[in-house]
Amino acid sequence: MNSKIQCMKLNDGHFIPVLGFGTAVPEKFSKSKIKEPIKIAIEAGIYHFDCASIYKTEEYVGESIRTKIADGTLRREDIFYTSKVWCNCLRPELVRSSLEQSLKKVQLDYVDLYIMHFPMALKAMEKCKDAGLTKSIGVSNFNRRQLEMILNKPGLKYKPVCNQVECHPYLNQMKLLDFCKSNDIALVAYGVLGTQRYTGWVDQNSPVLLDEPVLHCMAKKYNRTPALIALRYQLQRGIVALNSTFNEEHIKENIQVFEFQLSSEDMKVLDGLNRNQRYVTALIFDGHPNFPFSDEY
Question: How far apart (Å, rounded) are the C-alpha atoms in residues 27 and 55?
């Protein structure tokens, strides 16, 4: 892995870079628009990419990764690539076939992390790991009750290494984070900057996280941007942070998150911003056993 970026050890012994790049593209954009940001991210030193078959960007993400491998920028083993099995693949055989199709599109031999959105997929996910199609398996948008169902499942072979959920200063997921840590499950956060507020994904009347005065005040104190303060907040809590942007300057800026540290007093102030504000309520999650998402943890 890139030495600039810190990694977290997962409960199965593998390592995940704590800063990742999301690869979902809103409907109003061409999916191929993701290609250049992926290359820029790699050149900046970001090698962790979060993808899914439902994003319909796998071919373009894979093309960019292979281009940078071919030019000697990095090796396959430097990349941490995540894929997900969606809620429409309820039958066990579809779990593996979905991953095989994803691997074919991205043209990789394995993924580093395969994430499920529903508990019924567990056995099929374990078989994918045994077959070498994925190094690790995890879950997404699970609350405490659903995690306990998995952890207490008779014959559990592999504990999920992570739980990927929306998390930011307005939704800090404190109780869920504590539960995950107590069970050696990494919390992976999406929407860390309050999302990019795309129509259809986010209520346009919701407050804009990056307009928060506290973030701006701290940005001045540390001579950083409000976005970097929000990112740094997550990393210091022991969270893996995913961010996505098409802006080259912002992609390169994100790597600066490793160049400073927030004081314990400022971390407490940021903790106090929590208001259980969910941004991602899009119907894209329809079919998930925990949708619409609630404040239950």
Answer: 10
pLDDT tops 70 at residue 282: no
The answer on whether 14 is annotated among ligand-binding residues is no
Percentages helix, strand, coil for the chain (3-state, rounded to 5) are 40, 15, 40
Two tokens at 268? 């407490």
> To which H or E segment does residue 37 belong?
helix 35-44
Structure pTM? 0.93
The one catalytic residue in 55, 170, 190, 279 is: 55
Contacts of residue 259, Cβ cutoff 8 Å, sequence gap at least 6: none
Kindly report, residue by residue over 104-156, the tens digit of the pLDDT.
999 999 999 999 988 888 999 999 999 999 999 999 999 999 999 999 999 99
Work out the angle at residue 143's Cα, subtended by the Cα atoms of residues 139 and 148, and round it to the nearest 5 degrees: 80
Active site residue 158: no
Neighbours of 82 (CB within 10 A): 26
- What's the whole-number average pLDDT of the chain? 91
Strands 7-9 and 15-17 come out as antiparallel
Task: Decide: 114 and 138 in contact? Cβ < 8 Å.
Answer: yes
Q: Give percent above pLDDT 90 in the chain.
A: 80
